[in-house]
Amino acid sequence: MSNSIKALIAIALVLALKTTGAVAAEAEWDRTVLPRPPQPFQGVTKRSLEGSVAAFTQPVKTPPNAPNILFVLIDDAGFGNSSTFGGPVATPTLDKLAAEGLRYNRFHVTALCSPTRAALLSGRNHHAVGFGSICELVGGWPGYSTNWPTSAASIAQILQGNGYNTAAIGKWHLTPDSQQGPAGPFDRWPNALGFDYFWGFLGGESGQFDPVLAENNSIIGVPTEKNFYLNDAMVDHATIWIRDQKAQAPDKPFFLYFSTGATHAPHQVPKEWSDKYKGKFDQGWDKLREETFARQKQLGVIPASAKLTPRDPAFPAWDTVAPEVKKLYAHQMEVYAGYQENADHAVGRVVQAIEDMGLADNTLVIYIFGDNGASMEGTESGTFNEMTTLNGVPLTNDQQLKAIKAYGDLDKWGGPDMAPHYAAGWAWAGNTPFKWGKQVASHLGGIRNPMVITWPKRIKDKGGLRSQFTHCTDIAPTILEAAGLPEPKEVNGVAQMPMHGVSLLSTFDDANASSRHTQQYFEILGNRAMYKDGWLACWRLDRIPWKIDPETLSRFAPGKWDPDKDKCELYNLDEDFSQADDVADKFPDKVRELTALFWAEAEKYQVLPLLGEMATVWGFPKGLPDQTKFTYYNGTENISSGMIPPIYNRSYSISADLDNPGRFGALGLRPGVAGVIVAEGSFLGGFSLYVENGYLKHTYSLLGLKLDTISSHDAVPKGKVNVRYEFTADKPGEFASSAPVAQADFSSTGNRKLRQKWSIAFRSGSPPMRGWILELTMVSQSFQNSNTQRYYRSISEARSKRSSSTLVLPRLPQTIYGGCIWSASRMRFEIEEAIIASRVTSRSSKSSSSSPQTSCYCRRVASPTWR
Length: 867
Fold this sequence. Notes:
By secondary structure, the protein is α/β, with parallel strands linked by helices. 22% of the residues lie in helices and 19% in strands. The longest helix is centred in the middle third of the chain and has 34 residues, at 323-356. It is globular, with a radius of gyration of 29 Å.
């Protein structure tokens, strides 16, 4: 169409509108029903433009002056970590925002990752929306389904339906494990829960240098950029998104949920950040706790009457630690501190971008420093590979030091070559002045975290302190009131569950405003508490958070644990800020009152049945569908941990059709088939089936501690071949003995051709296959856990028969590359004195590693990881 014709059409439209008039104003509508229903035509239509009045449908708009919203969540950070709340870690962004806004020192979370996130984004109690635990521990009861109900629209869905642009960047951890694949369903991915844009990782944890990333409804894999670091990439995506949407619609407000993977394990950060803290923790955790407590009083973030709670015997006294081990422990905290400061720095870059765009005055920033207390899951000693702990293989200090040396010594701690977690004593210090930490919903160390809120246009008490009792369910109602929006009664035709939290907006203007949130239950895996009007009754189970050995777990088996027999503690938090003085004996009537109230709330909000600690091993189903055969095609990769075939601790086979071109050329210099056929994990745990030097090989890494490799007796033939690996367990689901159990063989196949040659990998990073992969099939034996008592009896018998073995730490061959190892947590190993590998030998095979002298017994259970 010529420019002259376009100009004539434009002139005609202008003249028509000038003569007929136009209707463009948006009529107000009932915002309690979302989405906005179709608007009736407000104009007039005649046979011609003469007398017709045009009317244009307008996009949904927010109420006037609705603020932009930046919602920040740091992972696994304690009350006493940040400099803003007296801690040793420099957090200049949190400091800056606190000076410009308000600090909240009685803000509470749920004590675990997914539950807190569900409560924050829904405004409802976590069990009420199916998140009584993390996504990896799915249960067959409403409070533990991890299926976000459509009757509880997220704050993002509500804002989106009212005219906001929405984005989530970083950690998600709210999609069931079994739904994180390319086939979906996607109704519980971020996009479906109200976010226009998502970039980050779906699971509970991720390597900071090599995460498996998702964008919107696709898994995009491990980034290949040089010097990639997750926090930096998160900032880039967040700031680009803000600038793009403001460039297109400058008056349209945004809601950005910025959730870092830091400071969850693995504790990984570029060395220049940890070097800042060299020597700053040589005094140990006992002294650090005292120093933090003193600074907290100086800053006024705890009252002058607060007491420093004593060290539990579960945490070793610093002066009992050997000098060489102190060096290791101090370095662990140096890395964690650098990791945490880097996360705060990333938040600062996003805040600076908002300021540079002139948006700060009407931007509400909610910065929550921790979805639970600092994590104690590193055990008394910490670990170079967090999966050792989470798979029930805690290491002694001597074993840790040997492993660390084998992987490059202390300089590698915090880099991509380890997946470390610090010792539990540092978490205890990070939760100053409280007892305990992450997982322990009965005590403030697990449930009380710092929060800072700024909104320059509204909050005038700059640097103020707020001490009202507040809870993570209060955030969504606060955002709605700040935006001038009602809580919806209906979303997408579904009647809505009322929000359980209350708005904090009254505290923005009045430091002495009454606490509106007057009662709240807490419960995570049996640890529980009931708060009402300043009083807190609590029940902590008799288990150290990092203890997941069979003897400990057996105490919570069905029929063995009676929650009514748990000891109840009682605290008057109005007078006892740090939960230091148990007054249960003085107020028995209050104990009875709060006990009855807890059970009533538990019934009301789907908390029942209580799952005592690691009760998931007593009947939670596996996340995958009831499937035993899995077929993958050329180029398949980035299968999420919840969708990986369940091959560990059971009989299984891997079969692949290959096309081996053999050597060709005048001198035969071109090699034949070589490389990875299928791999899962990394050198820190997993397996690889590959061809090397012409032979089919299978290497299994037990948590980076011991390798087992078998090789076929004959080289892979030229042409179309089928290769097969078989593992046969003596007692699937329980033990594997030293009997010959694996086999590699070949057979001829048809004459098919392929156009691509790639590895099939559950994580990106495996080297490509030379030759053609036509098809790969994995067949896994069905597994049922039906006799727990026999299992524990068998464990006891096996332990009495085991002998010792030395720690051997060879590195994996380069056929297994980085990517994430976290799916290895779907297998739990129980090992006593020695670090040894399961006895995988070959019928008619040659082994590249010596057979261990003792056998590892294993049993697959649901993942015991904590987020």
